[in-house]
Amino acid sequence: MAVQIPDRRRFVRQLVRHGGRGFAEEYGLPVLNNPANLYQLLSLAQLLRGSTDHRRAAAAARALRDRGWNTAARMAASPAGERAAVLRSYDQRRAATLADRVGATATALTERYGGDLRRLRTAARRDPAAERSLLRELPGVDGGVVDLFFRDVQVVWAEIGPFADRRALTAARRLGLGDSAQDLADLTGRRESEKLAWLVGALARIDLDGSYAQARQLATA
């Protein structure tokens, strides 16, 4: 049941203030419109997909980056066994599968777009449906991965927004903030794509952590 919030806009400001600068940035992965950072967002989305621990998945993404595999070309050139060894510390069960998956994605992205997701965006003519379609043509990228990528990249790819993933919308409904990404955009400001992404990231973490009681306390803080 949705909680009744007397001032939803104030509540949203509190959630954004306490929730950090979006999902990826909260875990040390900046959202910037350059080939390296865009690739890292996609890699993070792949590691988050199906993970039972989002913090460990984010730590795994940072570990791959810090190993020097911070671009699609470098990831594609890395030995699969070494990728698996890095990932094993964070997700032992899926390490080999994830190592193969991120490698295949990086190889295809390098071959088709020179490792630059901005070229994919140009090929899609900045149409979100076409961007989704081209992303899903990459091996290891399904609709869930695209959703997680879109959640953060809407800050720098304005055509994506307003966008909210399934977990963020679940939290929004339970907290009485609406049923759609547009409802959230109306609360943050129609042209505030950055604040919307921050809110969406905060809501997703609330649902992942089950921290609804703490979030509701902010409504009256």
TrEMBL record:
GO terms classed as biological process: DNA repair
Single GO MF annotation: catalytic activity
SUPFAM superfamilies in the cross-refs: DNA-glycosylase
InterPro entries: DNA_glycosylase (IPR011257), HhH_base_excis_C (IPR023170)
Highest taxon above the source species: Bacteria
UniProt protein name: Endonuclease
Organism field: Polymorphospora rubra
